[in-house]
Amino acid sequence: MASQGLVYDGCNFFRQRLVLSTLSGKRVKIKNIRSRDDEPGLRDFEASFIRLLDKVTNGSRIEINQTGTVLFYQPGLLYGGSIEHECNPQRSIGYYLEALLLLAPFMKTPLQATLKGVTNDPTDPTVDLLKLTSIPLMKKFGIDGEGLDLKVVKRGMAPGGGGEIVFKCPVRRTIKPVQLTDPGKIKRIRGIAYSVRVSPQMGNRIVESARSVLNQFLPDIYIYTDHMKGTHSGKSPGFGLTLVAETLSGTFLSAEMSSTPQGKGDPVLPENIGKNCAKLLLDEIYRGGCVDSSNQSLALLLMTLGQPDVSKVLLGPLSPYTIEFLRHIRDFFQIMFKIEVQKPLEDERKGGDKTLMTCVGVGYSNINKTLK
Amino acid sequence: MDGKVKKQRKHQQKHSGPKAEKKKLRKQGPSTEEDERRRNPKAFSVQSAVRMAKTFHRAQDIKAKKHHIPLVDRTPLEPPPVVIVVMGPPKVGKTTLIRCLIKNFTRQKLADICGPVTIVSGKKRRLTFIECTNDINTMIDLAKVADLVLMLIDASFGFEMETFEFLNICQVHGFPRIMGVLTHLDAFKNNKTLRKTKKNLKHRFWTEVYQGAKLFYLSGMVYGEYQTQEVKNLGRFISVMKFRPLVWQTSHPYVLVDRMEDLTDPEKVRTEPKCDRTVSLYGYLRGTYLKNKSHIHIAGVGDYQVSEVNFLPDPCSLPDTQKKRALNEKERLLYAPMAGVGGVVYDKDAVYVDLPASHVKQQQEEVRPTTELVQSLLDTHATLDAKMAASKVSLFSGSATLNSDELVEHERLQEETVWDQQNGRSRRKVVFNDSQDQASGSSEEEDEEEDKEQDEEQDEDDDHLNRFLRQTREGSGPPHKKQKVEQPPSELPVFADSEDELEKSEEDSEKDSEEDSEEEEDPGEEGDSEEEEDPDEEEDSEEEDKEEGSEEEGSEEEQGALCWKESLQQKASEAFLRQQEAAPNLRKLVYGTVVEAAGVQNENEEDEELGGLFRVSRPQNNKRLQADALDCSRFHPNGTHDWDSQEVLDSIRDCFVTGKWEHSEDAATLLKEDDELYGDFEDLETGEVHKKQNVEDQEQMESNSEAENEEQLLVQTDEEEQRKKRLEKKRRLKERFDSEYDDGEATYLDDLKEEMQKQAELNRAEFETMDDETRVQYEGFRPGMYVRLEISSLPCEFVTNFDPHYAIILGGLSSSEGNVGYLQMRLKKHRWYDRILKTRDPLILSLGWRRFQTIPLYHIEDHNGRHRLLKYTPQHMHCGASIWGPVTPQGTGFLALQSVAGTKANFRIAATGVILDVDKSVTIVKKLKLLGYPYKIFKNTCFVKGMFNTVLEVAKFEGASIRSVSGVRGQIKKALSTPPGAFRATFEDRLLMSDIVFLRSWYPVTVPQLYNAVTNLLLPVGQKDSWAGMRTLGQLKHDLGIRNKPNTDSLYKPVLRAPRLFNKLHIPKELQKALPFKSKPKQQVPKGKTPRDLQRPGVIREPHERKVMALLQALGTIHNYKTKKAKTVKHAKHKEFLQQKNQQEEAKSKRQRELRKKLYKAMGQTEKKTARSSLKGNTED
Description:
Helix content of chain B: 25-40%
Number of helices of chain B: 39
Oligomer: heterodimer
Largest sheet of chain B: 7 strands, mixed
Number of helices of chain A: 8
CATH topology of the domain at 186-287 in chain A: Dihydrodipicolinate Reductase, domain 2
Helix content of chain A: 25-40%
Low-confidence stretches of chain A: none
Largest sheet of chain A: 4 strands, mixed
Strand content of chain A: 25-35%
Distance between the termini of chain A: 28 Å
CATH superfamily of the domain at 186-287 in chain A: RNA 3'-terminal phosphate cyclase, insert domain
Mean pLDDT of chain A: 91
Structural class of chain B: alpha+beta
């Protein structure tokens, strides 16, 4: 069998490459991973990610050279089932979960993953954000039903971690094409102000300051304060805010901000977090689109893997991560998106330029799912 | 009586009155159901609710059965030719039929049918005929691509095995349309037998296909051809036939190759005859979209990656839409390169001339002036690589264009006409170019439209420049000289570099912080593209210009020759401004320059370094920086807005429900419109009558209140606006009406259908306006295109052993179908196959596009979900099978053969089935019994040896349940130190030393990893049907003459049984005493032989004594006789006497009875009397 592979350089977009390789069945070789670095090779969190990938697949072959600068990955079949993974606390669970979200609908058996580690940190999308935005997005692609669920059991802030989440996802044979071109108007804003191992008052302070910014637009704002105690509070103190704006057509735009991890930089005031996070949300609304910036790649992937029909989605400006993702999609699936810029009308006050992404799905069908 | 015939009165029919009316009613036909219902309502009333529910249920069931899952209609606007496979046993008339059909459609005679023949059969339909040879490999391959199968049956002979095999193949791989054609009907002399045979064959055919399947009769031959009328009818049937979409075909792209060219360097072939070949294959793309660089499977060869795909102008295009009934002679095209039609074929970078063998020989002998043209053409063929490098080759001193329209024209022509065209062609210059496909020339107009859509400002400028260039050249260049312009790639126009510079500088200044990593234009590439274009610019074509000119006439810009100049500066400044505020061309940003270069650009240094595996579109300058950056999906825009300022806040006001709504959605306007519609109403309670206000009035009022709307309202007073409004109102009303009245009926299925319909429309509309070159980038190559696929490193046998009679089928594979894994399938031995299949016997499977040999393991699922290995397939039952093979989607059907070599009398399809699961591991187990022997027995505990060899093994089985042959259950407890492998076990009862202990367990079996593609196309011509793979064990033994040495224990031997000896029964004395006499052993010995001393000697009588004895005996005998006789007589007499006595007795008793009766009677009467008298006495008193 002439199965060709792809070769990449460097450790950036590591997850994308491995995930797309798994979905497309193409082998991938990543060279020069931090080869000029003082500590060459894969980091612990990447190794942990590979281990997670190994857990959800069956028959994958992973080869890493001695220094860890070259990785060869031959994907197996996505198996799914019930897995438990101790995520490396260098990166938050969001890092791992983002990849799982991409893979989960294409497993052999419905996935039920228990991930342990850091639930909230400032670098990666937090678990709350993914829960509030990615899950409803997946529902639009026909991945819905009882099984789709993301639950935060324990909260663990960076750097200590100690959090735990349970992610369940049903499997689908095919993905529906979507036409998400009308974002609709924002009808309400919700949010979670979480705090662990600090005064419960922090949450209220965050809420207060966030509302002060957002109230000029909309009265329907409710921000939950989530203060976890005892065993559910993880190992490190911290707090943060996740805001989600929901539109009439079911689009979720989000923003978030968390406190700097203990012992890593200057501490921040909860008021600042609330205000800045609200501004970030406004920024996100300004960018707009039917999918928020952290889920662009998820939406694009599900469009790519749809039936050979035209799918359309309106996005805000493409993030660098998404742009690279588009390139990778072309490498792995030979799919190119038609990208059109939609400029706002003269008298419209709906934020900046939008990007209309159009593609024809590859007609992917879940080859792993068993036929009974 | 008087001879007069009395005239009878005629019956008078009533014409009026109630009777006539009644009759008329009755005559009007059978009364309708309604009538009956009315007349006999009881018969139609509900008799039983259950029964009614049942009938309703059944009716609904039947209704629901007719539903199909609605699918999105993905058929392209211009569909590829319909593949018609003509199959049948040898000598049945396949070639003749194709020839006749071709003649019927195109009025051309094709002498030799080899390879697919494509013809235009109607205004909207093209057909590709292909003949199926009698090889099962070909039958399998063609069944997978066929849209329609013409199944020829020799009626004079009846059905042959091939027909049934083919039908079964079709069943497995999706059932295409099948039409039976009976031939050789002239062999029947008797009309009755003919009719009977027809009927029999028809009914058998119907059972195989479906009831009422079409069967055609071709009655006889006229001058070696079928009768024109019959062929015409068949042709009509074919040209109106509708086809069902088959799952496999619609989900995979495939090409039925109608042309093959070897592109390998001839020098390399000369030095290394066995080197791998680069081959380009041509054909119509069918099925679904084909992506560039995708994996394909060539049936009978193997899996390959397409190194390049291009689309070519359609060699057999449908006629342009004209309003007329039939096609004219010129439009009835015929395209069959393998059969030698279309003597000159044009490729994207070469021209091929098909020469008969005689020409080639001549040319070898001497180069004559007549063959000079051919010679030169052949030269071009020989230096193909050089040509590709140079990107153009001039054949002749003069130059001429090759318009795509002309190309098609040439292809239509026969070989002779090519020679007629010689003069015309010799003037022309054939332009070969690597960088641009020929096709782009034809689609230039579309190109431009598309470009405008892409980025107007750039391309408009560009257009102007181009036009200017062309115009100037037109003026300067010689008018007679035909030149060709190469349309600059859509992304990088001729003068685009200047703009790119602009763009770049802006990006640097404005956006680099954000997207510095994504900037695509590095100077090197730009330089390249410029270089590429330079030669192109030099060659302008008059014809193209004319086209351009005609197009331009319509446009406004074309006022004067220098008009473009004026607008140029303005436009540039506009573009500058626009780019300052907006994002740059996003496509370029994301995908780089690959868009235009993908089909064109060959590997640059980096690509070569990566072995052509992938193309990096990332800029080189800061690649290193980016490569090891943090992998994070978070978007951190740097140009964040200052959300404290009111202006910035206002810019997103309308994103919220509190903001301003669009006119169509605004609640206020909607209310107002409702008012317009339902303006008049009377309040019943108050009796107040609301009159509809005049629209203008209302608006006037509103305009007073809203100052900002004033301008709009003024415009709205316009007549036009009002008309629009009215229309809008109407539409709204109609929508409301529809939603009220139609939605009630709509079912789930209707909704689904509507959804699919919408999707289909969107699919059609989305890329319709684009030109093919760009469209291909987004969609991939769409079905219906004529494509050229270049495949490198094909085995040389593919070219050297090429046989046009064998169809080459390129089947596209989706992303993961190129891998190998374990497949689990459901399999059933075919009911017509006469043997069962054995586990681990190699089997040839046809699965997906592939045919391959593999080793299956058969298994069956136990009730607890365990897959237990089977030695053989069950006779009439499904079983599981696991193989090592190509990953194929679940639900795909397959068929299995034991061999594909040669033809056999028997039915060859061994099994059929379906794929259930794909995995990287298997879980098949086989039963394993471990035996052990007890060597020491305590009460219920026992030491067992011989089951295991080491202590470790025992440790693994601790706690396992074991059993003895006699059924005593037990458990393994613990290993013993000596002997190794012995263990202590406990049982529910005491064992015997003679018992055998066994442990039942399951042993996982591995599936052998054999995947051996059937490469029958690589075999030499004439032996292509003799592919033989791995032999089964049985065949191997048979071929090598090896006979199994049977286990001697298993052999049958005569049964020898030793006589059984029993010991004497010994009863103790005490017991003997206690026993009853009956059971006591008897002391008396049975009377044996008298001992000798007791034996008496025999008596020997004297003669006299003998006489006396004889006499005495005689006397005795007489006496005996006499007494016997006397006894019988006496007996008889006695009997008589007894009889008499009986009779007397009887008579006596009878008399007595009668007497007694009388007596009783008398007694009764007296009694009655007394009773009556007493009663009377009472009454009298």
